[in-house]
Amino acid sequence: MSAATPTMIPIDTEPDEFRLLVRGWFDEHAPAKGGPGDFSNVHVVSASTIEEYDAREHSALETTRAWQRRRYDAGLAGRSWPTEYGGLGAPPWQDDVIDAEQSRYGVSTKMLAIALDMAPPVLTAYGTHDLRVAHLPRIVRGDESWCQLLSEPDAGSDLTSVTTTATPVDGGWSISGQKVWTSGAGTARFALLIARTNRDVPGRGGLSCFALEMDQPGVTVRPLRQISGAYHFNEVFLDDAFVPEGSLIGELGGGWTVLRTMLASERASIGGGTSVRGAIPLMAMVQTLGIADHPLVRQDVVSAIARERLLDLTLARIANTAAVPAAGSVAKLLYTEHGRITSDVALRLVGAAGMINDDPLAEQWVDRFLFAPGLRIGGGTDEIQRNTIAERGLGLPRDPGR
């Protein structure tokens, strides 16, 4: 852990003063939303070739890492984590305040989303002390990027059908199989992997979770081109990739329990993202077009602001441990619906300019519009989220006919 800096805020600071100090730090060090230097959408990358996309994605990762390290050096990253794992041992509410304040600025840590939002809950709940010491300090500094190796060609939303196998070998396991729809596989150093360790046990019972190192001969990453021109998703081929014994997360055969924690964290993380937060850019666009005073346009803009505010209030309730049934699914569904509706409205308002590639006003909205379907699939489809909300949130039966 780096030494304290002049901007380090004491952990015993009172809430009101803490918020003011955090906001003051962001005012000084973070760009405003929509202003010069805004990198809140740095993770939304498009390119015409794989090579160009790879270069842009790595550049976005370095931008994100630099910002995360800046936060860490100021004592504004992982404050509530134990000191032995890179934190300050501060009360959890301080992390919530930091996240809420950061959302007001033109910054993003989404290139490190799996490392920062999904790996820590999994490692904290199920990882050994050695795994936590090896990874958590590097994660909170922004030094380690992660991905998830979950879905397969025949196991998308139904992860009980995973067929990737983990076979015991000297010192660990040999992993063979194919994963697909993996975000960030080309920049990740490690992966949270679900594999079948017992082929005699069908469904969830034979699954286990591992921390897999991506940079090894048995791992091949192949980018998948999307309608947006991006290569955000990848398929990953595992041919006798090696996982050491100490990289098992949780119990052998207990992967489904770990997976539920992972997916809940993923959905909450997606819901707290920045890539579809389009209310402010939409306001700027209609002003540029000179249509801000049109009644129907004003209604569209106000609706976008209201959706975004509802999402923020929901996330605040979740962060403050309020009882929000199926919270991760609620946040993700609100987020993806907001992205779909806002980008659709923007393209309708921008008109024919949205049909060409290089219009400076329309370009970001084309990217958002084409990126939206992927968001509605990742972390479980919108239909899965609605089922989860119905069953776990509203208490409805799985089978209406029963």
Set down the secondary structure blueprint:
Elements: H1 15-29, H2 50-73, H3 92-102, H4 113-126, H5 129-141, E1 146-149, E2 165-169, E3 172-183, E4 190-196, E5 207-213, E6 219-224, E7 233-244, E8 248-249, H6 255-271, H7 279-289, H8 295-319, H9 327-350, H10 363-377, H11 382-393
Parallel strand pairs: 1-4
Antiparallel strand pairs: 2-3, 3-7, 4-5, 5-8, 6-7
Helix pairs in contact: 1-3, 4-5, 4-6, 6-9, 7-8, 7-9, 8-9, 9-10, 9-11
Q: How would you describe this protein?
A:
This protein is of the alpha+beta class. The protein is 45% helix and 14% strand. It is built from 11 helices and 8 strands. The strands form 2 sheets. The protein has a 4-stranded mixed sheet. A 4-stranded antiparallel sheet has the order 2-3-7-6, with no helix packed on it. Helix 8 (295-319) packs antiparallel against helix 9. The longest helix is centred in the C-terminal third of the chain and has 25 residues, at 295-319. It is globular, with a radius of gyration of 21 Å. The termini are far apart.
Radius of gyration: 21 Å
> Biggest sheet, strands in spatial order?
1-4-5-8
What is the CA–CA distance across the termini? 56 Å
The share of residues in helices is 40-55%
Q: Which structural category fits the helices and strands? A: alpha+beta
Number of helices: 11
Major sheet size, sense and barrel closure: 4 strands, mixed
Poorly predicted regions are 1-6
Give helix and strand order, one letter per element, not per position: HHHHHEEEEEEEEHHHHHH
